[in-house]
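Same chain as my last thread, 950 residues:
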Amino acid sequence: MRRATCLVAAAALLAVSTPVWASVSPAVAVQASTPAAQAAPVSELVAEVDIPYTKFTLDNGLTVLVHEDHKAPVVAVSVWYNVGSKDEPAGKTGFAHLFEHLMFGGSENAPGSYFTPMRNMGATDMNGTTWFDRTNYFETVPTPALEQALFMESDRMGYMLGAITQETLDLQRGVVQNEKRQGDNQPYGLSEYKQLEALFPEGHPYRHSTIGSMADLDAASMETVRDWFRSNYGPNNSVLVLAGDITPAKARELTQKYFGPIPRGPVNTPAQAAVPTLPAPVSETAHDRVSNARVQINWAVPGMLDADTVPLSVGASVLGGLASSRLDNELVRGEQSAVSVSASNGAFHRVGMFEITLDVKPGQDPAAVEARAREILNGLIADGPTAEEVERVKTQYVSRTVQGLEQVGGFGGKAVALAEGQLYAGDPEHYKKELQAYAAVTPAQVQAAMQKWLTRPAYTLTTLPGEREAYEEAAEAPSGANHTPAPPIERVARMPKPEIAPVANVDFPAVQRTRLSNGVEVVYAQRDAVPATKIAIDFDAGLAADDASKLGLQSLMLDLMDEGTATLNATQLAEAQEALGATIATGASMDRSVVQLYAVTPNLQPSVALLADVVKNPAFAPSELERLRAARLSRIAAERTQPAALANRALPELIYGSASPYGRPFSGNGDETSVKAITEADIRADYAEWIRPDNAKIFVVSDKPLSEITPLLEAQFGRWTPPAAAKGVKDVSAPIPAATPKIVLIDRPQSPQSYILGGEVLTASGTDDLLVLNAANNVLGNDFLSRINSDLRETKGWSYGVNASVSGFVGRVPYLVTAPVQADQTGPAIAALNLQFNDFLKGDKGVTPAELERTVNGNTRRLAGSYETSAAVLGAMRTNDLLGRPDDYPETVAARTNALTAAQMDAAARAAIDPSRFVWVVVGDASVVKPQLDALGMPVEVRSAAPAAQ
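reply #2:
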C-alpha cells in the first residue's frame, strides 16, 4: 500500500452544473472469484471521459478555449504561456521562473501584489508555476468576479513592463534565491542538478534546472529582463482557458474586451531537443545529510507526444509505480533490502526522464540493492509484463483521471487538460488520445518500448549518508545585481478595473443521515459531476490515542491494516485495488483515525467489499509487522534529517508538556524506543480498542443517491459487532505547563537556510467558535498578504514564505509560526516576527480598514469555490463533525463574516495570542546561527539533530 499520511504540522505557505460525464451504467452486481472480474472494462470508463469545449482565436493570436460546467458559480481562469526553462539561452537561465514571480508583483494598471485583488475577489486554487516547457497562472473565481480576473490577467500580459522597477526586480531575485535555498536544504536536495547535467549534454535545452543560475539572474539588467518579456509573453504565444460557469458567447465578448487590444508579440517556437544517449554508463556517488542511502537510475527518453511514451509509463508503473509493483514485491516486501522504491516516466514536451529510485534499508549494501533492481528490470524487459499487470495500470490511470477532472481549475482540473493539449499538441483533446492509448496498449508494446529505451546506458547516482560536498549555493543577497538603468516605459491608457458584482452565498450540498442496523451513523452528501464515490470511516482515536509508553502505536496499527487481510496478503490486496481502480488508505490526524476509499462508481460494490475486508479483517501478520517496524524506524531516522520534521518533533513537548497527548511529535511516527518495543499483541489490542463499530462514523460523497449507497454499506458493515474489549477513551485535559519562552536550536550543519517553528498553546479549544480569531489571523499570519509574510518575503526578501496558523485540534489548540529563512538572517527574522506580532497584538497597529475589507471579501467570496469537489465536501463534513459544527456551517460563515469589525478582530487576536509566551525551535547550522540568536536576549538551548543514545 501507499500510505496516506496525515501530518499534524504547521501549514506550509504557498507562493492551489452540467456534468461532463454521460451516465455510466453500474457494474453488473454478480459475484465473482476476484474483484477484477467485477470491474467495469477500462474501455467503458474511457468512453465516458469528455470535456466539451469551444475554441476561437482573437485577431492578435490569443487562443481561447471555453468549457461550460455550471455545477458551481465559479470560473477557472488559466493562462498558459508557451515559454519555460528549456527556452532559455545560455546566460539567461532562470528567467522564465523569475518572471513568474515578477508577474505576481503588479502591473501598470493593477499596481502592487496580485495577491491583494485576487484575495479580495475570493479566488481559490490561485497560483503560478514554471517548468521546462511552460509558465502558467491560474485562479478559480466567483462568476461575478470573472471580469476583474480577466482584467488582471490581461494587464500582466499586455501592460506589465512599466510596473517593474529596479527595487521589484532585486526583491524577486532575493525571493527566488530563498526558494532555491529551501529546495537545496532538503535531504537529497541537490540530486536534480546532478541528474540533469549527467543526462543532457552542454547546450541541451533541458540541461539546466528551472530555478536557473543565480549568477545569470544577478547579471540581468533591466533592459535584458524587458526584452525577455517582450519576446515571450504576447497573446499569440499564449493559451487562455475559461472553464466553469460561463458560456462561449460571453467568453468571446469578455476576452475580446480585455485581451483584444493587446498587440501581437514574437512567436516562441519551443526549443527542439533530441533525446540524448549516453556513450557509456555513468555512475556517481555523492554524500548528503540523509538517513539512508538512495540509488537513482536514470535514462533520457522521448517526450509526451512520442508513441513510446504511454508504453514506457505503463512499464514504469509495473516496475515501481503500482503498490503491487515488481520492485515493491521483491525488494520491499520480499527481500526487504529497501524501505521504499519507485519507478516513473516523467514526460515533458520534447524529452522525458525515466527514473528508478531505491531507498536502501539501513545495513544493506546499496550496490547489491542496485544490482538486484537491475535484475528485476532486465527480467521485465526480457519477458514483458503480464496482461493482468497492464490492465491494472490502465484501470488505475483512468480511475484517477476520472476523479481528477471533477475540478474545473487548479493544478490538475479540466482547464489544465485542455491547455496542455493545446499548448503541446495543438489539440485540446490530446487527453482523449492519451486515454485511448492507455486503453489500447499491449504487453508487447510495453516490452518493446522498454527494450528500445532502457537497455541504453544509464546514469546512476548513489547518495550516501555523510557530509555534503561543496556546491554552488545561492548568494546571501543579490548584492551584485546588475543595476544598469533603462529608459522609462511609455504607458498606454486603459479602461478602469471593473468592479465585482455581489457574490451569492455558497449553496452547500444537503447533508443526509441514516444509521446501519448496528447503529453506525452514515453522513451523506451527493455530488454528481463525475461517476465517483468517496467514503471515509472516521474513528474517534487519532494520534492522541497513543499511550505515552507506546508512541507511534496507532499509526503503525493503521499502516498494518492495509497490508493484508485474513484472505488477501499485502500484494493481493494491492492488486485487488488496482484492478478496480480503487484506492484504500489509512491515516490519522491528531484526534481522528480514518480508513478512506476512493472509487469509480461503476466498481463501487466490489470496492466497498474490499474496504470492509480491510476494516474488519486485518491480518496483522508478524512478518508484515517486522517489515513495517523497520520501515518506521527508517522514517523516524529520515525525520531527523529533515528541517521541518526535526522542528515538528521538538516543539510539541516544549509547549504542551510530556503529559499531554498533544505533546508528542506531530508526525505520529513515535520514537525509536517505543517503536522497537511494540508487539503483535499491542497492535491487536489497539485495533480492538479503537477500530470498532461503536467508535465509527461513515462519511460518503457520491454521485449515487443515499438510497443506493445505504444497502451497499449495510451489506458490508451492518452486522459488524464490537469486540468484548472496552472501547478506548482519550483524555486531553492534562494541564498545560506554564510557558517558558526560549529558543531551542537544533544543530544541522551545512544548512543554507534555517527552519523556524515557534508557537504557544492557546486557551481556546478547537470546538470553540474561532471564526473571529481566524479572520484576525488572516491579517496577522495566515495569508500570503499577512503582516509577517509581507514583511519577511515581500519586503525583506529573506524567505520564500512565512505562515502562522491555529491548528484544528479538538482540545486546546496550538498557534504555530513557520518561517524558513536564509541562514544569515535567522536572528533578525525572529526579531522581525516578534516586532510584527507585538505591533499588532500589543501596540496600536491593529486591523486596518483595507485589511478588514480584504479579509471580509476574501473569506466570503471564496466560499463559492471552496466546495466545488466531492473531496472538499467530504472534508468539510468530517471537520464539521469533529469540531461539533452544524451540517450547514459553511452557509453560516458569510453572514457572520460580513458583520465583523476591526475592533472585534483586534480583540479576538489580542485575547488569544501572546508572543511573550512563544517557544521557538530553530533548525540550522549552529556555527552560523547561534551568535545571531544569542543577540536576541532569550535563553538558547542547543541540541543535536541526532537522537539521544537509546
